[in-house]
Amino acid sequence: MASHTDIAVLYANKPLDTQVTVKAWVRTFRNDQFLAVSDGTTIRTLQIVLNKEEHDEAKLKKLNTGACISASGILKPSLGKGQDIELIADQLEILGECDPNEFPIQMKRHTLDFLREKAHLRFRTNTFGAVFRLRHHLAFAIHAFFNERGFFYLHAPIITGSDAEGAGEMFKVTNLDLNNVPRTEDGGVDFSQDFFGKPANLTVSGQLEAELAALALSKVYTFGPTFRAENSNTSRHLAEFWMIEPEVAFNDIVANQDLAESFLKYCFNYALKHGREDLEFLQEREINEDKLKPVEDRQSMPLIQRLEFVANNEFERITYTEAIDILLNSNHYKKKKFKFDVKWGIDLQSEHERYLVEKHFQKPVIITGYPAAIKAFYMRMNEPDAQGRETVAAMDILVPGIGEIIGGSQREERYDVLVQKCKQFNIPEDHIWWYLETRKFGTCPHAGFGLGFERLIMYVTGMQNIRDVIPFPRTPLNAEF
Ligand code: 4AD
Ligand code: MG
To answer: Under CATH, what is the fold of the domain 124-169+204-468?
Structure first.
């Protein structure tokens, strides 16, 4: 096949007055002469100028939005507005026709809901091109960040026989015949006849396995898909999402916060550097969308400025107890504007989290020292506070517009305390013997956290629905494509 050049490369190198070939999809065709095409390598389209006489009319008629073409000619400086190069094409080939009466993605504004139904084609729009290029850059940033710091990338299993994490409802994995399920004597499912000889699930988190590796390799991170069968149909929850979970031996909860903060800032800076044009496009888009909203729902800062602001300013760090005090002393609380009551011991609701980050601090906030009763069994017990209340060395990072983006903790490394916690949380020791053994054989303080990849992408792109930052979202009653 003849070689061709990416449009991104043409804009970067501007090989003027040379012969080039581009292969791309038509966006618009004006005056039987000016073709705007995109090959998705950049947000920019390339203008192709056709000399009518050189191309037969039947071919020109096929240059509909969405058609795929190959064009060759000389690259020239452009006199037109909005572009500085154009291709004067003497050869044009239609690689794939596109019937305008059937193609759903036309050059007009489509709603995101409509495009979600057309997820197989929405990559062809500017918005989704920008989002998925940024998704790529952020994935790359994550590997770069950890690799530069001597972390090892660990592949945690996706199918797991353990359900100890307790992070959410699990999807079962089985190859039993569902129309003829083998039964035990007492009528239960006989999992001894199942593929693994016992119940198995899709993982909700790679953390426990990452801890095992960290207690040998010192610094590891996972980056993989995780699954939660929770029936929460919100704009921030997916049934299948990607999570990044670093785990570090010898880190305490403060080092854990430092790592998480510098990690997020690195990702923001990386996107600003490598995805600038896409961010500029998404910023424009957001400004236009905001015009349709009531003033109080609009962003107070444009997207790029927001990212620069959080990349350059310290996150706020407060304890759970301080967070509760702020909420109790707020006018919002006094005027009874919270739907859920506030008192020490509650799990913070998203309205509380939003108040803290969006109204009170207006920047990312790290909250530590949550009540032990509302957090996972593996989080390290703190000394009881002055009032004898039990807290754990947990941390959540909340950001404006999203709420929780990171959850993590220092881990309980003391064998006896951990065994005690397992009892309290009804986790049978024989389910988690391997985890407990690491606390018997050379245990050490260690800490880690989980970043929801899609929530990071939402924050960076300004997209408001998590379904629009993953190519094919899985949510309750939806596994199309
Ligand atoms: O707070 P979570 O449940 O923490 C864990 O799973 C720990 N094992 C992490 C660790 O310490 N290694 O989840 C971590 C993050 C959340 O802060 C959120 O960003 C994201 O994962 N998350 C989801 N993202 C999309 N859809 C869902 N249903 C999510 N549930 C959690
Ligand atoms: Mg959490």
So the answer is: BirA Bifunctional Protein; domain 2 (3.30.930)
Among 373, 141, 422, smallest CA distance to 271 is for 141
The CATH architecture annotation of domain 7-103 reads: Beta Barrel (2.40)
Cα separation, 68 vs 22, in Å, equals 11
The Cα–Cα gap between 318 and 117 comes to 42
* Tens-digit pLDDT profile for residues 206-231: 999 999 999 999 999 999 999 999 88
How many A from CA of 337 to the centre of ligand 2? Answer: 24
Per-residue model confidence as pLDDT tens digits over 164-204: 676 678 999 999 999 999 999 999 999 999 999 999 999 99
Who has greater pLDDT, 51 or 142?
A: 142
Which ligand 1 atom minimizes the distance to the CA of 204? 6
Residue located nearest, by CA, to atom 2 of ligand 1: 407
State the distance from the centre of ligand 1 to the C-alpha of 206, rounded, in angstroms: 11
Q: What is the DSSP string of 161-194?
A: S---S-SS---EE--S-TTS--B-TTSSB-GGGS
Give the residue range(s) of CATH 3.30.930.10 domains in the chain: 124-169+204-468
Q: Is 456 near ligand 1, meaning CB less than 6 Å away? A: no
How far is ligand 2, taken at its centre, from the CA of residue 254, in Å? 18
User: How many CA atoms within 13 Å lie on the side-chain side of 153?
Assistant: 12
- The answer, yes or no, to whether any atom of ligand 1 lies below 6 A from the CB of 405, is yes
- CATH 2.40.50.140 residue ranges of the chain are 7-103
Residue 452 near residue 460, CB atoms below 8 Å: no
Ligand 1 contact, 454 CB (< 6 A): yes
